[in-house]
Amino acid sequence: MKNNNGFTLVETAVVLVIIGLILGGILGSRSLIRSMQAKDVIAIVEDLRAATVYFKQRRSYLPGDFPVSANGEIPNISTPGGNGNGAINGTINAQGQANAGSEVEAASWHLYNDGFINKIDNTDPRRRLRTLYGAAHLIITANSGVAAYAAANPTVRNVIVFTNLPRDLVEEVDSKIDNGDRTTGRAIGNAPNASDVIDRYAIALE
Questions:
Q1: Which terminus of the chain, N or C, has less C-beta within 10 A?
Q2: How many helices (H) and strands (E) does the chain have?
Q3: pLDDT mean over 154-170
C-alpha cells in the first residue's frame, strides 16, 4: 500500500533518473558549445595562416610588414606601411588593442583589403579580428605577451595571439592543434587568472 506521506522507492528512482537526464543534458550542451567555440578559434588560425601564405606569395612580405607606398598596391591602402624586416612589429595592450599605427594594427587590414580574409570589425581598427571573448592579432613573437613562447620556440618569429580566452577553451583548442598542453609546443598560453581566463594564447603563424 502506498504511503501518502512520502515517495515510494520507484517514484524516488524516477525523480533521480529525470534529474540525471537534465544534468546530463546541461553538461552535454556546455560541452557542445565549447567544442563549437574551439572550432571557431581553430578556423581563425587556419584562415590567418592560409591568408598570410597567399599574401606573402603575392606581395613578397608579411601582412602589416608590407612597405606600402602611395601607389595603392593594396586596394584602399595608401598610408605608410611596415619596414619589410620579416617581423610584424607592435604591441597589444591589456584591453587587446594593437598600438595605433603599428604593423600589428595594419596586418589584418592588409589581409582584408587584399581579399584574403572576408570579415573584420570596422568599429575598432585596433581590434579588427575578434572571438567571442577578445581580439586576435598577428604579432612578432617577442611582443606576444607570452613570456615562455620565445624560449620554447626560438625559430618562430611571428605568432597569432588570442586574448582573454577561458582556460577550458584554450585546452580544447590546444588538444586539437598542438600537443594538448598549453605550456609547451607551438601553441602556448599564460597561466589562467582568478577568473580562469588566459589573457594571452600564442600560436605559431607559419
A1: N
A2: 4, 5
A3: 97
Of 157, 190, 187, 162, the C-alpha closest to 175 is 187
- 191 in a structural domain: yes
pTM for this structure?
Answer: 0.84
Mean pLDDT computed over every residue of the chain: 88
Looking at the 3D structure of the chain, how many domains does it have? 1
**In the numeric block, which cell numbers belong to residue 78?**
595608401
User: Does residue 70 surpass a pLDDT of 60?
Assistant: no
**DSSP string over 128-149:** -EE-SSSEEEEEEGGGSS-HHH
173 within some domain: yes
- 32 in a structural domain: no
Cα 109 to Cα 124: distance, rounded to the nearest angstrom: 11
Is 26 contained in some domain?
Answer: no
Containing structural domain, residue 154: 40-204
